[in-house]
Amino acid sequence: MDFTDEMQMEIGAIAAGDYVIRVFEDPRQLPQADWNALLATQAQPTPFMRLEYLSALHESGSATATTGWQAQFVGLWRQDRLLAACPAFLKSHSYGEYVFDWAWADAYQRHGLNYYPKLLVAVPFTPVPGSRLLAVDAEARTLLMHGLQALASRQGLSSAHLLFGDSADLRAAQQQRWMQRQGVQFHWQNRSPLPYTSFEEFLASMQREKRKKIQQEQRKVREAEIHFEVRQGAQIGAADWDFFYHCYQLTYRAHRSTPYLTREFFRLMSRDMTENWLLFTAKRGTEAIATSLVALDPMQGHAYGRYWGAVESVSCLHFDACYYQPLAWCIANGYRRFEGGAQGEHKMARGLLPVATHSSHWLAHPDFSQAVADFLAQEGQAMRGYVNELEEHQPFKPSS
């Protein structure tokens, strides 16, 4: 649907021109080629922002109004040209976001106010930093940002949030006076300018205690007579996906939870984004006992640890399947970065170092907005101290 003339006038007050903002309740209604072309020009493109990925979440029933993710994708046009776009959702809860605002929602409820629905700009279930506000230039990004806030205000929403954006997104949000929040993740980066030539060389760059621990953990897996098979892209067959999904379900079941993603989502991924997936299968003899799924961005040389599961418990198998095997693969295939997902400072001992992440937030209620701003100032100071402390415990030798 188009915004009203009043909304277009509000946007036109920022920049002259015949701009139109449209909101879509199904991402498949957007022009896929134009969306992906915008994504390719951004500072931090990731495969999770491809329209195929976002459409699969919707089509598979994983992220829909029924599951609390009502699509409100926003596009900015000038005549027939798509100038800016972003994935946005009306959220009826805060699950699957990895930037936690449950306390804010509880405070609203205790004061007799509704926190939900809220407007969320994010990739569902995917805490991967990257470009969120796809735009041809800073002006178009500003107009898109202005349109998002206008959309939230028009619908009387409590708040709007932009999660895991890049530096350009952060600047656009700051211009709108959205509040900033910092988090931390743990990423591995290949050495530069002389990258590692082998996993053994990577281990040799680590402090002796850390290196020995990794070697001991891998030895336990070998002593359990476990070996790994690796399949990429079209090599991953339907039976492989079926076993992976069974393990994926078991992981959630162990935490007494329900999987976010349906089996249909992964079928669509195997069809529409074939080359973006790498599967490690742990086997004892011919029997598969665990899997680890990694997403790939071949153009950027980045890999992303995503999901894991096992049908039986084997000591240290998780570390090998989710960190050591993917890192060895990245080194062997010339990949420059491996992102290990949200949280987990235990990853530092395995060569993944702290990286700051960012989110931006707007709250309509002035008193709550001020209270959250005060909280974020204190949290931000504590987070900076935490990151500084982590930096003092580098797992690598001083010369590496």
TrEMBL record:
SUPFAM superfamilies documented for this protein: Acyl-CoA N-acyltransferases (Nat)
**Organism superkingdom:** Bacteria
Alphabetical list of InterPro entries matching this protein: Acyl_CoA_acyltransferase, FemAB-like
Membrane-crossing residues? none
**What Gene3D superfamilies does this protein map onto?**
3.40.630.30
Q: What is this protein called?
A: GNAT family N-acetyltransferase
